[in-house]
Amino acid sequence: MPNFRYSSLINSAVETVWNFHEIPDVLQVLTPPWQPVKIIRREGGLDVGAVSEFRLLLGPIPVKWVATHTQCEQYRLFVDEQTEGPMASWIHRHEFTTENAKTRLTDAIAFSIPGGPIVDLLLGWWVKMRLTDMFRYRHEVTKRECEKNANNG
């Protein structure tokens, strides 16, 4: 199963970065403008049982993606898992740690593409490239918003 990891240091308290992820429209804010993704619903915040539903385009084909939160430890981590969607499996850990009075935000994803290990081997690199683009954008937005709030607060 391929793994992806993206991490950055944000000059803001863990509570600020966590609270940013709790705002109701955070998914709209964190979705890169070039991604063909529509947020259908977000229910339950970051808590266990929370659900996010998206519609994305794979080429011309609309695909439903539903993620359900399976773990949540306030100010430390939350985990969402695909319960319906295009991947064979998808587990996404969002980790928040204090590092020298700043926050280390880490997104770690274990995924599998339909078709088994050979498809993972052939296409996993492409998925990781797309994820790198997306999480670079998400972390830049998170950093900008949280540091702006920290500097104005």
Order of helices and strands, N to C? Answer: EHHEEEEEEH
What is the SS-derived class?
alpha+beta
Q: What is the fold named in CATH at topology level?
A: Alpha-D-Glucose-1,6-Bisphosphate, Chain A, domain 4
The total strand number stands at 7
CATH homologous superfamily identity: START domain
- Strand percentage, roughly? 35-45%
The overall average pLDDT, rounded, is 94
Structural account:
The protein has one domain (3-152): Alpha-D-Glucose-1,6-Bisphosphate, Chain A, domain 4 (2-Layer Sandwich), CATH 3.30.530.20. Helices cover 33% and strands 43% of the residues. The chain has helices at residues 14-22, 26-30, 117-152, and strands at 3-10, 37-43, 51-58, 61-73, 77-84, 89-99, 102-112. It starts with a strand and ends with a helix. The mean pLDDT is 94.
